[in-house]
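S.,

Sequence below, as promised.
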Amino acid sequence: MLTDASRRRDFPSLEGKVYLNSAAEGIPPLSVGKAFEQYFADKLLGMDGRDLHAAQWNAAKELLAGFYGLSTDEVSICSCSSEAYNLAAMALRLKAGDEVVINDLDFPAGATPWLVPGSPATVKLWRHRDGALHVEDLIPLLGPKTRLVTTSLVSFFNGFMIPLPQVLAAVRKHSSAQFSLDVTQALGRIPLDLRDVDLIVSSTHKWILASHGGGLVGVPSKSAAAWTVPAGGWFNLTDAFGAQRFETAVNKPGAAGFTVGMPNYPAVYAIRAGLDYIRSVGVEAIHAAAGPLVAQCLEEVGRLPVELLSPRDPSRLAGILAFRHPEADRIHKHLRSKNIHVMSHAGRLRVALHGYNTSKDVETLVAEMKSALKS
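The prediction came back faster than expected:
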């Protein structure tokens, strides 16, 4: 991933392309395609394939546990991050008078379960200033009624990375709330220290270079009781086929309860392969290679006549930066005509830099941005 030779070997589809959109869709290495082929071969065995599916499931969980800093019993895989958060909303059993804190840099999956009709909790909004969330603005929102504070580690909107230790310290000091963290825009791209987080969630089709169809859940054992999902199913029950199965259903506590039915095994195979690829390269090595590219891009784009939405301090970013321009659609079309892929969505252009990107990618982007802005 980090050399010309490995890029050509593992990511041949990137040849001749400047791909800067991993925050939306990561490009899988060829090993992920081989994992899908292995799933199909195993599925052809019928019921005899179940043991092979289970082996992939266990391998994926072991890899995930390593990335989250948890045990395999403290992680599980559901269908997507949105499902994870809706199940989390069920687990909390919120009532009138409870309060949930969300923020205005977050992705809808982690914020909207508390906003839908029928949700009894009062939602408080932690607002950003100048593209950043400040801990001093969070503290007044916390109190004895706060049941949950939920946020992304890295904002999908502009790439801002919250100061996690300071945020956690504020939540613990000023409330007894559970703390939920979405690491979708961080997992596989930057090193993680997730100690003292109560619920960890990630999608699977971005920086870990796997497929759609997965939601990666982590719940440390100390928080398992708070995140017991009261959902029907079978995979999430302590005894789904026992003698009392039509009289009572007992849910598994913690992460295990977030997988309510048959796992999405095609995605599990891909997740195992994607995580294994990232592990083999090393997140620290990816960060060391891509971090300077973020700083380079931030400096160069910051000189252009655009409205920068991301903080100008590269240490406050992971892999994303975003900006606005009145002619964003035209600029986006120009970039695509040059086979440069960035995100045009939610009123801004967004650039994402991963381990398969190079300094030349940034130079090409900036040169074509200048060309588009002159025309």
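Residues 32-280 form a domain with the Aspartate Aminotransferase; domain 2 fold (CATH 3.40.640.10).

Coffee later?
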